[in-house]
Amino acid sequence: MKRILVMIAFLLMGFSLGPLPAMAGELKINGSTTVLPVTQVVAEAFMKDNPGFNFSISGGGSGRGITALIDGTTDIAQTSRWIRDSEVKMAVENGIYPVPFVIAFDSIIPVVHPDNPVDELSLEELRKIYNGEITNWSEVGGPDRRITIISRDSDSGTYVVWGDKVLKGDRMTPRAQMLASNGAIVQAVQDNRHAIGYIGLGYLTDRLKSVKVDGVQPTSTTTASGEYPVSRSLWLITNNWPSGDVLRFINYIQHPDNAHLIEEGGYVPIW
User: Fold this and answer.
1) DSSP 200
2) What angle do CA 250, 251, 252 make, to 5 degrees?
3) Distance CA 261, CA 179 (A)
4) Which CATH number describes the domain made up of 2-105+232-264?
5) Domain ranges in the chain?
6) Fewer Cβ in 10 A, N or C end of the chain?
């Protein structure tokens, strides 16, 4: 799969790899709060290289970004999950033809308060925590305290991938606190010694402790190799094959010379 995605990137690169002349323009990008740090970093660099160019970038979740693309209210949707068949159907019915471009790799990391002694959980233990079967930290080697479960809301691509790879079809426990962004989860977990949440790699800070999954630490290396079991691709989706300013930005964010910008945004470059 990764080989196919990189081939897509190569095809796009053939259009424009050289320096771009400065020009005025504006792009709207909407969607995933996971992808947000990357698009912000790359947009700032793009504007330095293209004085007079502007961006309007907002989060709100992958689902909202795709909806905005379908409605024609954004130029690019940023998403941390694959577009659903139902969304493709709605798009085509509205005259929109989604074309996805992978821009980075990411891991979804379970995080706890730094004072929590739990360093590792299995996928099965995570599944049981999030479906409500495990309710106390003592059941997984921690203190005798009730687990506060923090999750992203259903508009989030991170929520969808977590459901697929961790819950594996189980329903999320109704005890879970559903939050609208990675930043909100960071805040909630750092303020609660008994909480567990999950975030994208780019949001990990020293205010949180990452938890190994099945003995694998989430790092750039284990993310790129797929060894870490909850890894994924991050995407930008355009309406039809891009042209003009949209093409210029896609070329820019995928260009191997700009891989360091993906790293600055907290994620793993495709190159």
Assistant:
1) E
2) 90
3) 28
4) 3.40.190.10
5) 2-105+232-264, 106-225
6) N
| DSSP classification of residue 66 | H
Instruction: Determine the Cα–Cα distance for residues 118 and 112; give it in Å rounded to an integer.
Output: 8
Per-residue pLDDT tens over the stretch 18-65: 444 545 689 999 999 999 999 999 999 999 999 999 999 999 899 999
Measured between alpha carbons, how far is 55 from 223 in angstroms, rounded to an integer?
Answer: 29
CATH 3.40.190.10 fits 106-225, yes or no: yes
Tell me phi and psi for residue 181, to 5 degrees. -155, 160
pTM assigned to the model: 0.84
What crossing angle do the helices spanning 36-49 and 244-254 adopt, rounded to 10°?
110
Q: Are the C-beta atoms of residues 69 and 77 closer than 8 Å to each other?
A: yes
Q: Which amino acid is at 5?
A: L
- Comparing CA positions, the residue from 51, 99, 47 lying closest to residue 76 is 99
CA pair distance 253, 9, nearest whole angstrom: 10
